[in-house]
Amino acid sequence: MAKKQQPAGDAARNELPGQPGPVPPPVAEPMQPGEPLPPKQDQDGPETVSPTGQPTGADQARVAQSGAYLTTAQGARLPDTDHSLKAGARGPVLLQDHHLREKITHFDHERIPERVVHARGAAAHGVFQGYGTAGEVSKAAFLAKDVETPVFVRFSTVLGSRGSADTVRDTRGFATKFYTEEGTFDLVGNNIPVFFIQDAIKFPDVIHAAKPHPDREIPQAQSAHDTFWDFVSLHTEATHHTLWNMSDRGIPRSYRMMEGFGVHTFRLVNAAEESVLVKFHWKPKLGVHSLVWEEAQLINGMDPDFHRRDLSDAIESGAFPQWELGIQVFPDTPEQTFEGIDLLDPTKIVPEELAPVQPIGLMTLNANTKNYFAETEQVAFHPGHLVPGIDVTDDPLLAGRLFSYLDTQISRLGGPNFAQIPINRPHAPVNDMLRDGMHQTAVHTGVAPYHPNSLDGGCPFLAGADMSAFIETPVKVPAASKVREAPASFSDHFTQPRLFWLSMTPPEREHIIAAYTFELNKCYEQAIKERTLQVLANIDTELCEEVATGLGLPAPAATEPLTEPDPSPALSQMGGTWPTDGRVIGIIADAEADLDGVRTARHAILDSGMVPLVIAPTGGTLDSDGDDPIPIQRTYAAARSVEFDALLVAGEPQAGADAYGARYAKAGTAQPPQAVDPRVLLLLTEAYRHGKAIGGWNGAERLLASAGITADEPGIAVGETSTAMVEELTQALGEHRAWDRFPANL
Ligand code: HDD
């Protein structure tokens, strides 16, 4: 092995050749170079970890560069990167400073255009494991039993710019890239199963209406403005999607707690070339849960990265989020309808009660990204990335998407070779005849990139169905005239919104009413509010009247007959119990509290896969002089209730002690004992208002009482030991919120 070159000594570094005068000493840096890491294999796919969390590739990620010495882009070692080359220490900078020019030029071009929609996102790696249950309907190899396929999933909001807040009211993108052995399959879905438009030609219209106003570029990442409501009130096929947006689905608690939907109807084909129509569903193991609107707004300021942080923290702590992939299966008839529902209309769902979602595999996200730009920003999804056994239908929205996604990557990623970017590289062998173009990184050999050829030995050859070729399903196309029209069934815009409304529980309806009232209050144009009320009247009289009252406007009568569809209980988010992995419990404590109880509570919370955060008057540790100090994660000044799913108030060290007022009085002030620190009161009252579980032990009821909370209410519990209280909180958290004490209009 060649002898390692030692770094230049300080004297050499301090004096640049030809430069008079002293150069300031370099900033102290580690001077012992480590072994250079092995060069990365050019054709390596993205690194993933196994289902048990073991890295499957060399972990180079935490190391920024692969060698000891800083170099130029061309590999020349650099003696200094902090000073431009100058004619004298106080003289002008010289144009010949190639390092300065390279460094600044590269920096100038660090940004690429953000996505025209879904610009704000967060992503993670994982694995998909087929159950084998789809074998009868699809020949896709990755769906076979126990086959493990690496995946990369990007979640996103739709409207906001790349730096916008996570918890805005919006649809969420849920895009999954399956790196299968038969080629890459992308399932580019949303957390809402219907779409605003039925034909892709209207996509620019709906997005122009929903994005910030073009004159002043406000509001950011919001639908609460005139142009959005102008469009959706004029264009009633958007009613169903808009209603979902105004429901709790528009403000998810976490990406880990969202359903995902392929939206369109797809066609699956089995080994015997028989086809069925399907809708794809992702079902989160943690259940579907949402924020309440006030929480969402507070989080936008407190922690704009709330969802991004939640996802990566959960993965880092080993609470790997999981979703089951399921399909609703329909016969592939020439009508392409099911129970009267047009399967080609992306504004319609098929209720799960009519066609159950059948599980076909499990996805586990088990590794965070190592470089946001390289992976999350550069990943390129495309609904046209299909594998044998999965095909498209004639949904006119899907047809436009099949064009748009390829097209957009060309401007976003700078040319047609984006499939060579590591995160986009298929794991299946690629043997294409695509050549040259911007950012070509492959060195293709051979002389005959055309078919047929004899000069490259006729290679590559074409595959047949028995060699895993992707063959479009030979669906019969009806003889028809060219028209710019939609089928008659596409004009029913109200039956399904009404179905959704009727399927909601009372608190969910309250939230929808509050959301419409909030959004329309933000509009300036009276005509837009009135037109939207007319749309609401055609969904439901109570909905319309309540929103009209909130706006101070008369409620119009329906102009279309109100239908009576059977409600679909599966659409409601309430009424079940779910695992609590990764939920965050804040423990309010101070130095005088029962610290052994705090310790056992922390352990009990960690043991049940949740996250305890100790909230205390100042930072540092509690019981700092003891054997087992308790780390404090939040001070009263830095904590806000929206960070926590539940709160636990530490008890007194001895039964019957009565120091609560004093202990929670603002540190260092001479307030009377009953004057509880207002930040603690805010924590408690806010958590209470948002229907969160609150517990405490050994005298904690006195502190709760000062916040107007009594222990006999739903979701509130005070007991004798901290472990018993953790158990109670965990049970309450399983239902997400104490819905029984949920106040109206939040
Ligand atoms: Fe789209 C991005 C989902 C309709 C055009 N879309 C994009 C992303 C998701 C969706 C999740 C983000 C992908 C990522 O994380 O990189 N889009 C949908 C769904 C739709 C839909 C579920 C309806 C069922 N989209 C749709 C239409 C068009 C587009 C009708 C155009 C005709 N979508 C795009 C795009 C984007 C995109 C402009 C922006 C960035 C990108 O593709 O890669 O091409």
From TrEMBL:
Looking at the keywords, is Transcription regulation present?
no
InterPro entries according to UniProt: Catalase, Catalase_AS, Catalase_clade2, Catalase_clade2_helical, Catalase_core, Catalase_haem_BS, Catalase_immune_responsive, Catalase_large_C
Q: Which cofactor does it need?
A: heme
Spell out the molecular function terms from Gene Ontology.
Answer: catalase activity
Reactions catalysed, semicolon-separated, are: 2 H2O2 = O2 + 2 H2O
Q: Where is this region: Disordered?
A: 1-63
Write one Pfam family the protein is assigned to.
Catalase
Would you say which domain of life the source belongs to?
A: Bacteria
* Domain (Catalase core): residue spans on this chain: 71-459
Task: Please state the Enzyme Commission number of this protein.
Answer: 1.11.1.6
Q: Which UniProt keywords apply?
A: Heme, Hydrogen peroxide, Iron, Metal-binding, Oxidoreductase, Peroxidase
Q: Top EC class per UniProt?
A: oxidoreductase
Q: Where is the composition biased (Pro residues)?
A: 19-39
Give the protein family.
Belongs to the catalase family. HPII subfamily.
What this chain does, per the entry, is described as: Decomposes hydrogen peroxide into water and oxygen; serves to protect cells from the toxic effects of hydrogen peroxide.
This protein's name: Catalase
Q: Which organism is it from?
A: Streptomyces goshikiensis
